[in-house]
């Protein structure tokens, strides 16, 4: 089946340009030269655009999209819950798009969102989004975008980001103040968020005159419970002196707790544990101390920014909102 991306490739233009030519009422101006190239490509490929998408004019589709790396991460699913509620209040529906950190998935969603003329998009600023033309194509199609979470920054859209260095610094400094001196760090590979949280970890060590030990740093392939279990196993077996572990997120931290419990290592007396994001922290046994991210506030601010763009059609003065995390003390420290 021929897609709009095939037409764009054939014509040598963007997906957004093809969409603007096909949807005459999109109010996006395309030169005669480019329009002719698109029309020729449509004819040669015998492309048949989606009738519903073709009939939709600018901002007449009461739908927005929420684009995340994976809804399996409780952090994103909990924010999605709030986004859906805010959208419902405005009588909008929500498309959920899981990229699984794959560019081919983000490209598919990009095509669908443009063809269906969604009114706006909230997207996590992950590497596959930032290294592709995902946001550029949406903006070219005159679809408002808000970047929420993720560690990357952009100047051409509104963003709601987290001060991750501050959050990790608070966690590690708390451990140090509670007489922990051999503190391990667990992160995820190819993750800008890991880099920033690791910088807060190193900053806390340095400001409290503790030496950085690379043997106490474990970088895993993914951010699931099993990865946390594996990280704890490797760290404890190779470093018997560890008295605390700071972990990338709560789900991984739950795996760390599983391993410590299986090994009958007392928490927090022998090894303290701190997670990040406050997604499943109250479900673990013992209950997890974590760096809490105000998910309701993040969703609220993101939706306010998005609907301001949708309703006022403004394209400048982009806002950057920085959310400050909070350390919540529970039973693992």
UniProtKB/TrEMBL annotation:
Which of UniProt's keywords are assigned here? DNA-binding, Transcription, Transcription regulation
Identify the residues that the record assigns to the HTH lacI-type domain, covering every copy.
2-58
Asked whether the UniProt record includes Transcription among its keywords, one would answer yes
Q: Where is the signal peptide?
A: none
Q: What is the superkingdom listed in this entry's lineage?
A: Bacteria
**Cross-referenced Pfam families, in alphabetical order?**
LacI, Peripla_BP_3
Q: Per its record, how is this protein called by name? A: LacI family transcriptional regulator
Molecular-function GO term, any one: transcription cis-regulatory region binding
Instruction: Give a yes or no for keyword Transcription in this entry.
Output: yes
Which InterPro entries does the record cross-reference, listed alphabetically?
Answer: HTH_LacI, LacI/GalR-like_sensor, Lambda_DNA-bd_dom_sf, Peripla_BP_I
């Amino acid at each position: 089946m021929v897609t709009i991306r095939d037409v764009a490739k054939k014509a040598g233009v963007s997906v957004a340009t093809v969409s603007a030519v096909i949807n005459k009422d999109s109010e996006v101006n395309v030169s005669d030269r480019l329009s002719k190239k698109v029309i020729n490509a449509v004819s040669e490929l015998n492309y048949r655009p989606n009738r519903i998408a073709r009939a939709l004019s600018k901002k007449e589709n009461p739908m927005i999209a929420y684009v995340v790396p994976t809804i399996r991460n409780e952090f994103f699913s909990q924010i999605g819950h709030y986004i859906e509620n805010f959208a419902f209040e405005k009588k909008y529906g929500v498309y959920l798009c899981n990229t699984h950190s794959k560019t081919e998935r983000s490209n598919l969603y990009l095509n669908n969102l443009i063809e269906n003329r969604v009114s706006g998009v909230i997207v996590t600023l992950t590497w596959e989004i930032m290294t592709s033309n995902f946001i550029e194509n949406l903006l070219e199609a005159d679809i408002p975008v808000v970047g929420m979470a993720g560690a990357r920054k952009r100047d051409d859209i509104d963003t709601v980001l987290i001060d991750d260095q501050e959050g990790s610094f608070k966690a590690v400094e708390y451990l140090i103040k509670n007489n922990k001196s051999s503190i391990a760090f667990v992160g995820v590979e190819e993750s800008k968020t890991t880099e920033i949280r690791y910088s807060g970890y190193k900053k806390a060590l340095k400001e409290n005159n503790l030496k950085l030990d690379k043997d106490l740093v474990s970088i895993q392939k993914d951010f699931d419970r099993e990865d946390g279990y594996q990280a704890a196993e490797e760290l404890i077996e190779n470093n018997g002196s560890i008295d605390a572990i700071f972990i990338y997120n709560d789900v991984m931290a739950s795996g760390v707790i599983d391993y410590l419990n299986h090994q009958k290592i007392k928490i927090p007396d022998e090894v303290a544990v701190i997670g990040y994001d406050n997604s499943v922290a109250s479900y673990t046994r013992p209950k997890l101390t974590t760096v809490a991210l105000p998910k309701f506030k993040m969703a609220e601010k993101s939706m306010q920014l998005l609907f301001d763009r949708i309703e006022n059609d403004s394209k400048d003065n982009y806002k950057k909102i920085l959310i400050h995390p909070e350390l919540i003390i529970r039973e693992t420290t």
